[in-house]
Structure formats: structure tokens, C-alpha cells
Amino acid sequence: MPHRFSVSSRQGSRWWVVSLAIVLLFTGSISSSLAQSGRRPPKQPTSPDPLPPKSDEPPIKPANDKPSVPKIPVKVVWDHRFIGSSTIYSRTVQEACLERLAQSGSINATSGADEMNRKKASDIAKASTDMYVLWFELDVDTTYQDRSGIGNVPPQYLMVNFEVFTPTTGKTKTSGHVYQRPRGPGGVVLPGPGTSGSATYSLGYSGQEMADRVLESLGVARPPH
Hints:
elongated, 4 helices, Rossmann fold
């Protein structure tokens, strides 16, 4: 015998269909209104962006265990033998020599406070365990003819005698003579060669040449001019 739906069942099904149609109609009208107004429905929240990977920290550099090479101490002193010449020329030679020694980067160059004779310079080196003493004096060049001893010796007739004393023994490491030259390092012509005005320049270059000889005796390379 065929099954028949009751009136109440038919009415309930019809009501459910009508309700679904109303919901769909209402949803469509809302979407249409948002589209016409230019507004877009809000996006649903998404999960936060993952954090960027942590960069590796730079490696820690190990400390440099290589000890620095100590500089060779050299004291530059001078003696003023001749009353007939100004001490300014000895100081010119000393300052130029100190500057040149310091340019090597391997020498700790210092100056003596007062004038010093040869024996005292040797004694200072002997009393030290590591310091060399460079001693020099200005002497008269053999080309100077006036030997009367009256008046000052013209500075262009001065030459440099030097001697280096060794620490702990006080013995001579090296010695020599430096004459003034009409040209400086690199062949530069000095102003007014053979005059007192050019002596300041040429004696300064004599101090540099003396420093270069000392560096050579100590096994230190000469700095470029």
C-alpha cells in the first residue's frame, strides 16, 4: 500500500524551502549593496607572518696573541766643542736626526737635555740594558782656511762627527763623518749653496744622513724620503 504524506509534513517542507529562499535573497542583496558602494567585505584575519629567520651572529675574532716588536731606544746627544759656532746649528742637526729616526717606525728616538761630552755619552749607554746613545759634534771642514780662531766659524764650513755607543758595554757600534752637500735628498738644489743661509738646510740634511747611517748599523730599513 503506497505511503502518503500527511498535510502537516507537506506544510513543514514547504516552510523550510521558503525560509531558505529568504536567506539567500537577503545575502545576495547585502553583497550587491557593498559592490555598488565600492566597499569590499572585510577579509578574514589570517595567521601572523612568520618572523624572519635569525641571522647568524658574526664569529668572534680571536685576540691577536702575536706580541708587538718593541722599538729600539736611541738617545741623540751632542757636544759643543767650538765656541766660534752657534748651538742653533747643533740643534738643527739633532732635530732632523730625531725626526728621521722616528720615521722608520722601529726606533724610539729621544734627545738629551744638556750638552754632553763623548765619555758621558758612552757611560750612559753602558749603564743601560737596551738603549743606544748617538753622540755627535760639529767640527770645522778642512776647506775652511781661516784658522786664526777669531770670530765665528761660518756655518757652511761645519761638518758632523758622530759615534754610536752600545748598551751594557758602552763600546762603539759605528762612527763616521757627514759633510754638507750642495744638494739634498733626491738631488734637490739647496738655496744659495755655500752660504750661511743654505747651512740651515744642508745641516738638516746632514742630520738625516747621520740617522740613515745609524739605522743601517742597527739593521733597520731606511724610510723613504
